[in-house]
Amino acid sequence: MTAFFDGIAPVTYKGPDGDGDLAYRHYDPDRVVLGKRLEDHLRFAVAYWHSFAWQGGDPFGGQTFERPWFGDTMEDARLKADVAFELFDLLGVPFFCFHDADVRPEGASFAETTRNLEEIVDVFARKMETSATRLLWGTANLFSHRRYMAGAATNPDPEVFAYAAATVKTCMDATHRLGGENYVLWGGREGYETLLNTDLKREMDQMGRFLSMVVEYKHKIGFAGTILVEPKPQEPTKHQYDHDVATVYGFLKAYGLEGEVKVNIEQGHAILAGHSFEHEIALATALGVFGSIDMNRNDYQSGWDTDQFPNNVPEVALAYYEILKAGGFTTGGTNFDAKLRRQSLDPADLVAAHVGAMDVCARGLIAAAAMLADGSLAEAVAARYRGWQMPWAERMLASPLDAIADLVATENVSPRPVSGQQERLENLVNRFV
C-alpha cells in the first residue's frame, strides 16, 4: 500500500440521506433495475490518463499537481500503478482504461519502449489477480509525441505510419493479454491544419488501410473484444477525419469495415461536433455501430474540450435512455474520460470527483429506466408514425414515383399537419429527472 490515499476509507453506498461527501448516495451497485444490477448496467471505468498522468496544465499554464509518481522511470510507473489500483479498489469500479504512454515511460528506442510497456502489463496482470477491476479497453497514444505532429496513420512520412502500426500492435497485444473487452483508436491528429499541404484522398486511404490492419490483427491473435473508433471533429487539428458518428460510419462503409468496427462516443466530442450526446448515441444504435461511451462534459462557455466530470442528471438520463432502448452495453461501458480542475489538488478530490460522477450516472440511468418502463415516450413516437403501418403506405414505398403521383391525384390526397407535441414530451421527461 502507498500513502497517497491515507485516511480515505473505501467508498460505500449510504443512501440519499447518507453522511460525508465520499459516499455513494444513488449508486448502489447491487440495486436491480430492469432486471440487471446497476453495476452491470453502467460498467464504470476509471481513465488512467486523466486520473494519474495529467499534471494539471491547460493551454495557458503548466503543471499544478504534484504527485510522487510524476517522472520518467520505471519505478515511477510502478508507483503509479500501485496508486491506480488503490483508487480502483476504493471506488469499487469494475473497469479501467489506459493508453500505453500513460502507464510506461518512453524508451530510447522502440524496443525499449515496448519492454517498458510489457513490464507494466506484467504489473497490471498481477494486480488484477487480487482486484475486482478489469480492463474495459486499451489504446495507443498516437498524438502526444512530436513524431505524430502531422498524424499517425495519415502522416505523409511512411516511417511514422510504420512506427504507429508497430505501436498499435504492442498495445493490442497488451490489451489482449489483460483480457480487455475492447480496443480503441482515437485519431487525435488524423486530420489536417490546411488543405494547402494535404492530399485528402491519400490520407483517408492510409487511414482506411491502417484500420483494416487492426481488424486483421485482431482476428489473427484471436482477440474477442470490439474494435472501437472515437469520433471528434477538431482540436487539436482543424479538421479530423472521424468528425462525428455519421462521418465515421461513412468512412467504415467506404472501406468495408462497418461490420467490424463500432464507435466509442464521448459527450464532450459530441458537443464540439454540434450535436447532443443522445443524438450521437441514437444515430450509432440506428446504424448498428454503438459500442461504448466516454462520460464527461464541457464547459458550455468555453469553445474547447474541458473534460469535466458529469453533473447534469437530465443530460445523462437522455443519453442512458438511448442506450437502454438499444438493449444496453455489451462489451462497452461508461468510461470517465474526465479530469479534475487544475485547482483541485488533494487526493480526496480525485475520489470525490468519481463518487459524484457515479452518483449522477446512477440517477440518470434510474430515470432512463423509469422512462423506458413507463412507455409514454415510446408510445408517442409510435403514434406519430402509425400512418406508415397502413397497407397503402407500405405499398407506396415499393411503388415508382409516377404511380405515387397518380395516387395523390386520383385519391385527392391533402395532408393536414399534426402537432409534434415537443413541449409536452419535454414536460414528460422532467417528471422523471
What does this entry look like structurally?
α11 links the parallel β11 and β12. The protein has helices at residues 38-42, 48-53, 74-91, 100-103, 110-130, 158-177, 200-221, 245-254, 267-272, 277-287, 313-325, 347-374, 376-384, 391-396, 401-410, 422-430, and strands spanning 32-33, 36-37, 44-47, 95-99, 134-139, 182-185, 191-192, 226-229, 239-240, 261-266, 290-294, 334-336. 46% of the residues lie in helices and 10% in strands. The chain has 433 residues and is an alpha/beta fold. The longest helix has 28 residues, at 347-374. It folds into two domains: 32-374, Alpha-Beta Barrel (TIM Barrel); 379-430, no CATH class. It has an eight-stranded parallel barrel with strand order 3-4-5-6-8-10-11-12, surrounded by five helices. The model has no long low-confidence stretch (mean pLDDT 97).
